[in-house]
Amino acid sequence: QQQVKQSPQSLIVQKGGISIINCAYENTAFDYFPWYQQFPGKGPALLIAIRPDVSEKKEGRFTISFNKSAKQFSLHIMDSQPGDSATYFCAAIVNPGYSSASKIIFGSGTRLSIRP
Amino acid sequence: NAGVTQTPKFQVLKTGQSMTLQCAQDMNHNSMYWYRQDPGMGLRLIYYSASEGTTDKGEVPNGYNVSRLNKREFSLRLESAAPSQTSVYFCASSVDSDTEAFFGQGTRLTVV
After folding, report:
1. Is B105 close to A109, i.e. CB distance below 8 A?
2. Residue range A27-69, pLDDT digits in tens
3. Are B75 and B67 in contact (CB under 8 A)?
4. Helix %, strand %, coil % for chain A, to 5?
5. Three-state DSSP class for B31?
6. Which conformational region is residue B108 in: left (phi greater than 0), alpha (psi within -120 to 50 degrees), or beta?
7. Distance between B93 CA and the closest CA of chain A, angstroms
8. Terminal CA-to-CA distance of chain B, rounded, Å?
9. Cβ-count burial of B18 within 10 angstroms (0-12 exposed, 13-18 middle, 19+ buried)?
């Protein structure tokens, strides 16, 4: 019930295309959903985050779409560039009223490659 | 603006040796975490500290111990290293246990 399922495991997109990474969850105790970007040899870095009271959040070329009823959320990277090549992790954070040993649950990651 | 600082960046241990991974944050965060990252396994929580003076086990705590030395520092100790502990270790911190985490640069540990 704590799991966050992320897909695809790897993704290849042509430069200028749209990259789409999907995540799904079961536990309705999650109420904050950040995305992280990780380059080789570096730690994950916070990219963008959303709360379930909004259906979409956009920051530059990065957009999160959120479907509360389906318990799904996705990251869209518009006009994908070679510099976007990295591993992306979705995450879900449990709300303060829920007792859990692990408040931040990560998806398994998506390795994104943008071809020139 | 150092953020989360981990030392060392690389380490090679022999089986059975012990070592401590150090982590410090300068963001006045209450919560700190230790994760390990293995190929195809994503990020797995080893231990976390919701606030100074408290620690809790995560998903994969066996073979590890932690110490929340003060609000800034959270160390991870391997008492008797095993090859299965070969991994990249990340320390992270967050304002509280229900907010987004900020990660250090990682420690690449190899146990031979």
Report:
1. no
2. 888 889 999 999 999 999 999 999 888 999 999 999 999 999 9
3. yes
4. 5, 55, 40
5. strand
6. beta
7. 11
8. 36
9. exposed
